[in-house]
Amino acid sequence: MEQPKHSFKSGFVAIVGRPNVGKSTLMNHVIGQKIAIMSDKPQTTRNKIHGVYTTDTTQIVFLDTPGIHKRKSKLGDYMNQTALNTLNEVEAILFLVDVSTGLGGGDRFVIEQLKKVNTPVILVMNKIDQVHTDALPAMIQTYHELHEFAAIVPISALTGNNVDRLLDVITTYLPEGPQYYPNDQITDHPEQFVVAELIREKILQNTREEIPHSIAVAIEDMKVQDNGVVYIAAVIYVERDSQKGIIIGKKGALLKEVGKQARADIEALLGSKTFMELWVKVKKDWRNQDRVLRDLGFRHDA
Ligand SMILES: Nc1nc2c(ncn2[C@@H]2O[C@H](COP(=O)(O)OP(=O)(O)OP(=O)(O)O)[C@@H](O)[C@H]2O)c(=O)[nH]1
């Protein structure tokens, strides 16, 4: 994946909210025809990707964080540590509430969890088509007193009212970053693109110009093992033997460091322990080989 020439902003945003507040409706509206990735396979990881919104200048990856919605578990009133880890890692959290039913116990529970993380929380007051606008200021005040939200955006996910503004607000919280996903690729394995991109990023961060941005990372295997650990086998493709040597480093030191740094990010993203194997292979002129490009999940315009 080439780095875009102009500045590109990207990042992960978690959506939280009790059942029925309109999370799926919002996603359908935002992603619409631009739907890039929707996995209907049973979850291989705990953080499901809801959808990916891509424009010329931005990519927002929306994550579902199932753990936070649970009021009770076997351990009682406990909070899923995985969900908390995710919420700490994302750029922003969208907290959806339903203004037509008002503030409920479910909302209060989620707010308590949100207080445990430092990530900016955008309060999204959904279903404003169901209430008179005069009623909104008092509702906003009620939420305002419960938590210090980074922003409060009233919307109707159903009609699309004010959703553009919500996207603008989200964008202000995104750092400059790569386009993690291709524009129009439909895949059952959305996580693999991100995992590959994170490994590639760590290689570039740990090397100098001698390793071009054109290196590619292909995920050969990614599966959840019986013990819950996600096994990842990845191949790093370079064009020359000298590049292979650089990436492996003295006694494998550089590759080890790349693996360590990538794993930390990947574990935070997936919410699971991982075991990762990395290989470096030389594939001369791989950039000109169409089939290889497709195997690597590359866009044709890349
Ligand atoms: N009037 C109105 N109805 C909405 C709006 N957004 C969602 N709904 C309706 O609310 C219901 C629940 O919406 P969903 O998008 O399924 O809610 P969800 O949060 O994804 O629900 P879970 O999957 O149970 O977590 C559906 O009947 C939607 O049509 C809105 O802005 N206005």
TrEMBL record:
Keywords: Cell membrane, Cytoplasm, GTP-binding, Membrane, Nucleotide-binding, Ribosome biogenesis, RNA-binding, rRNA-binding. One of its GO terms (molecular function) is small ribosomal subunit rRNA binding. GTP binds at residues 17-24, 64-68, 126-129. Its main location: cytoplasm. GO terms for biological process: ribosomal small subunit assembly. Residues 155-157 are annotated as: G5. It is a peripheral membrane protein. The keyword GTP-binding applies. Residues 17-24 are annotated as: G1. SUPFAM superfamilies: P-loop containing nucleoside triphosphate hydrolases, Prokaryotic type KH domain (KH-domain type II). The keyword Coiled coil does not apply. Residues 126-129 are annotated as: G4. Residues 64-67 are annotated as: G3. Pfam families: KH_2, MMR_HSR1. GO terms for cellular component: cytosol; plasma membrane. It is found in: Cytoplasm; Cell membrane. Residues 43-47 are annotated as: G2. An essential GTPase that binds both GDP and GTP, with rapid nucleotide exchange. Plays a role in 16S rRNA processing and 30S ribosomal subunit biogenesis and possibly also in cell cycle regulation and energy metabolism. Monomer. NCBIfam families: era, PRK00089.1, small_GTP. Belongs to the TRAFAC class TrmE-Era-EngA-EngB-Septin-like GTPase superfamily. Era GTPase family. This is GTPase Era. The gene is era.
